[in-house]
Amino acid sequence: MKPNYKNWMPKGMIWSxxxxxxxxxxxxxxxxxxxxxxxxxKTVLTILFAVGxxxxxxxxxxxxxxYRAFSYDGRRQMSRQIIDGVAAKVxxxxxxxxxxxxxxxxxxxxxxxxCNPQARMIGIDRWGVxxxxxxxxxxxxxxxxxxxxxxxxxKGNALKLDFADETFDAVCxxxxxxxxxxxxxxxxxxxxLRVLKKGGTFAIHDIFSRQKYGDMQxxxxxxxxxxxxxxxxxxxxxxxxxxxWEASWMALKGSAILxxxx
Length: 262
Hints:
44% of the residues lie in helices and 18% in strands. By secondary structure, it is of the alpha/beta class. It folds into 2 domains: 60 residues; 184 residues, Rossmann fold, CATH 3.40.50.
């Protein structure tokens, strides 16, 4: 049995863009080559739908390239590289427990559990409609396929974690928080760190651009001022997980991993 971690670029989004292209192209031809309309309206509608078709073509090609780069079965396998890289930075003590926020298909939860067989991992996710192919059942099936027994999965909300303060020995996450509509994503990070035990470690990979997160260097200093033993923001777009060129065309500029110890 082989695990199925799906793809970070859902096929449904690619097919939607392709369908939009087909519809726009058909309408551009309809208005441009028939007498359905005439004069200014004919020109405006033809140009409008032709531009729409062009935009959808670009979107379809871009998302298809993303799908190929992220595929676990493809040549690049960027997803696997990122998951393994983040998991390697999560260390759990004997009998400890870690939390993966936004576990999706369970890839990071399972990878951390495999690196720390002496501990256990809990993965939570809301499994929304945007990634409808991801589910708790899929996570559990992937864990069984990997022969991993020290994991469990549950529904959860990253904005308000259903756990008491200082519950976990480690917390981790990968490309989750930038997808959550919020005016202050730094506070989402603080909610995750709230459930981390004193002395626990964290590894959070995301697109930490100023536009999405504000000044992350100030956030790093904030944690240090709060007494965190070690905090570091490591750029992952300079060869660690991807090249600068890949980060640029894949819209992943600002990707970094926030690591440290509370």
